[in-house]
């Protein structure tokens, strides 16, 4: 029988976050109101989110033999995440510049993957035993596409549920779609993948239909403050976000959703409940600064879920 573990392939970067009223123009300097450094990277953020949400997490990546790599290792150890990180000499651990709008919490991000940008199929082959024992496998597109594809292929071979977060929205071959039990783009990524501009839930449904036609078994379009749309050949349900307080920073919210969704699936929750769990996690995360540091605990998520109706949704 499959275990309750979640295996995640992705990158770690150290986030360098700057808060200011606006982005500077080319050649301009603006004064910032705050700076923070902490652990980040989509894969690592998802691993932290899933671990805090109660999952047994294995994380595969590459890091450099440097100070940022040491932050990564200490982060995973503190969260109880099993590291399958290859440490490279002479290659830097990745970093991300994050601009945070101090008024709205919105963000703009530049990611340099560093060592994790060299991940390949061989790294995934090395963790095949972990994947085979897992309940859920998760990957994204911050590392090279061949590594993501190999992970999805191995998970499919071993009957493991696959969650593909196509972020950032980079080109990839259509043969990846049939490997996806769930694909989880946000509005921008869904638009890039389908050419359908998303200004409403119905637009999201049309985009999701395109992804289903390409071979994905289910689509979840995350819609920010509107929540998340679960769209399958049999149902289309909008799960609203939760009002957990003032929005401080939205960076990492999508990672939180995906990590929480995977953790809930791994412990046997049905997909709609897993989406609701992911929405609660993400709704809490945006009330806090940082990406990985903003991820809530299982107790905090359950407290939010316990205070709300079972589901307030649109269905068609």
List the helices and strands and how they pair.
Blueprint lengths: L4 E5 L3 E8 L13 E7 L1 H11 L3 E9 L2 H13 L2 E7 L4 E9 L5 E8 L6 H5 L2 H6 L2 E4 L5 H13 L3 E4 L17 E2 L3 H8 L6 H13 L5 E4 L5 E4 L4 E4 L13 H14 L4 H15 L12 H9 L7 E2 L1
Parallel strand pairs: 1-4, 1-8, 2-6, 4-5, 8-9, 9-10
Antiparallel strand pairs: 2-3, 6-7, 11-12, 12-13, 13-14
Helix pairs in contact: 1-8, 6-7, 8-9, 9-10
Short description:
With 316 residues, the chain is of the alpha/beta class. Helices cover 34% and strands 24% of the residues. The longest helix has 15 residues, at 271-285.
Can you put this structure into words, describing what you see?
- The chain is of the alpha/beta class.
- The protein has one domain: UDP-N-acetylmuramoyl-L-alanine:D-glutamate ligase (3-Layer(aba) Sandwich).
- It is 34% helix and 24% strand.
- It contains ten helices and 14 strands.
- It has helices spanning 42-52, 67-79, 121-125, 128-133, 145-157, 187-194, 201-213, 253-266, 271-285, 298-306, and strands spanning 5-9, 13-20, 34-40, 56-64, 82-88, 93-101, 107-114, 136-139, 161-164, 182-183, 219-222, 228-231, 236-239, 314-315.
- β4 (56-64), α2 (67-79) and β5 (82-88) form a beta-alpha-beta unit.
- The chain is globular and about 50 Å long.
């Amino acid at each position: 029988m499959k275990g309750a573990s979640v295996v995640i392939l992705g990158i770690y970067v150290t986030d360098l976050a700057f808060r200011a009223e606006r982005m500077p123009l080319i050649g301009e300097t603006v004064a910032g109101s705050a700076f923070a450094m902490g652990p980040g990277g989509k894969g690592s953020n998802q691993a932290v989110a899933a671990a805090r949400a109660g999952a047994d997490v294995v994380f595969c990546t590459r890091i450099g033999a440097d100070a940022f790599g040491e932050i990564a290792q200490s982060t995973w150890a503190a969260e109880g995440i099993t590291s399958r990180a290859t440490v490279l000499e002479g290659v830097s651990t990745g970093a991300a510049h994050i601009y945070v709008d101090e008024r709205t919490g919105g963000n703009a991000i530049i990611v340099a993957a560093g060592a994790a940008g060299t991940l390949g199929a061989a790294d995934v082959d090395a963790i095949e035993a972990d994947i085979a024992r897992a309940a859920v496998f998760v990957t994204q597109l911050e590392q090279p596409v061949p590594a993501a594809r190999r992970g999805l292929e191995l998970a499919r071979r071993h009957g493991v549920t696959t969650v593909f977060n196509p972020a950032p929205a980079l080109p990839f071959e259509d043969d990846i779609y049939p490997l996806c039990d769930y694909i989880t783009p946000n509005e921008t990524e869904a638009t890039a993948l389908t050419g359908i501009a998303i200004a409403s839930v119905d637009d999201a449904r049309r985009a999701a239909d395109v992804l289903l036609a390409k071979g994905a078994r289910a689509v979840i379009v995350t819609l920010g403050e509107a929540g998340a749309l679960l769209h399958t050949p049999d149902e289309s349900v909008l799960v609203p976000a939760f009002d957990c307080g003032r929005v401080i920073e939205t960076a990492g919210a999508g990672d939180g959703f995906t990590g929480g969704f995977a953790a809930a699936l791994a412990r046997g929750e049905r997909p709609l409940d897993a989406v609701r769990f992911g929405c609660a996690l993400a709704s809490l995360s945006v009330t806090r600064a940082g990406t990985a540091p903003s991820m809530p605990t299982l107790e905090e998520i359950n407290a939010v879920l316990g205070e709300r109706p079972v589901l307030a949704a649109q269905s068609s």
